[in-house]
Here is the input.
Amino acid sequence: MRYFFIIALAAVLITSGCQEKKPLPIIGNIETTATGDTIYPVIRDFSFINQDSQVVTNKDLLGKVTIADFFFTSCPSICPIVKKQELRLYDRFDNYPDLMLVSFTIDPKRDTPERLHLYAQNLEVDPKRWVFLTGPKDELHAISKDYVSIVLEDPDAPGGFDHSGRLILVDKNAHVRSFCNGTDPKEVDRFMEDVQWLLDNGGE
Amino acid sequence: MLSNQPALIQFVLKLQQIRRMMKTGYRISVLFILLAAFSCAADHAVDDAYAQVLALHDEVMPQMSTMSGLEMTLQEIVKDSTISQSGLDSLQQCLKALGDAEEGMWEWMNQFKKPETGTDKNEALRYLETKKESIKMVGTAMASSMESAQKLVDQYKK
Here is the structure.
C-alpha cells in the first residue's frame, strides 16, 4: 500500500512537470466571408532562382515546413548573427526532410546565383535543405513586405523590405505559424520548440 | 684556505654574471610587456574605429526599408494618369534620387570589409576613416531623397 502511494505521487509529479505545448495559431488577419467561410492569410505565389540557378516556386515548398528569412550576402552586421542561429536550426532538424530553410536576398543586383552558391558553400549546407533565392528586386521586396504584413497582422504595414533579422515559420499550407528575432539566441530557442511542435503535428 | 681562493673568486664572478643576466632578463621582460601593451592598444584602435563605422551603418541601414516603401508608393502614384507632365517629372526625378541613394548604400556595404588581421595599423585606420566619411555621405543622400519623397507622397496621397 505504501509503495502504491509513492508510485502515485511520482506519477502526479511527472505528469504535472510535462505541460503539453499549446497548438500554434495561424498568424495574420483572418477574414470571414459573407457565406461564413474563414480565410486564413497565406504567403503569395512566387517564382525565384536558387543558388544552383534552378527555378524554385511556392509550389515546390508546398507540403514542406519552411523557415524563411530576408538577408543579403554583403550584410556586415545582422545577417551573420542570424545565419549562425539558422545553422543551429539546420543542425537540430537534420533528420527532418520535410523542413526547409528559405533565405530570400533583398539585394538581387549583387546576390547573383553564383554569389549565393558561394555563400551556401561557405556555410557548408545542403541545397536540398536550405535554398537561397534571388530574382527581380520588385518581386523580392513585395514578398518580403507580404511576410511582414502577415507577421505584424497589418496589411498596410509601413516600410518596404524586411531587414529585421526575423525568422518566420511557415506550415505545409503556406500559413505563418510562428516567428522570432533571429539575432536573439533565447528567442530562437523558443522558436525551435515551435518548429518541433509543427513537425510533430504533421506540419499543419 | 689559499687553495680555495680561486673557487671563491669564481663563485663571486658567477654570482655577478647571474645578476647581470637577471638584469638583462628583467629589462627584456619590461621591453616585451611594453611592446605587448602597445600592440594591444593598436589592435583596440582598429577595433574601435571598425565598431564606430559599423554603428554608423546600423543607424542608416534600418532606413533602407522605409526608403524602399516610399519607392513602392511613388511607383504606384506615377501610374495615376491624371497627374500633369511636370508632376510626373518631379516624381521621376525623386524616384531616381531614391534609387541612387539606395544603390549608394548597397554598394557601400558591398565594398566594406573588416581590415584583415596583420594589416598595417595606420593603413587600417585610414581605410576605416574613409569608410566612416563615405557612410555619412550615403546617410545624407538617403535622408534628403526620403524627405523629398515624403513631401510628394503627402501631396498626392491626400
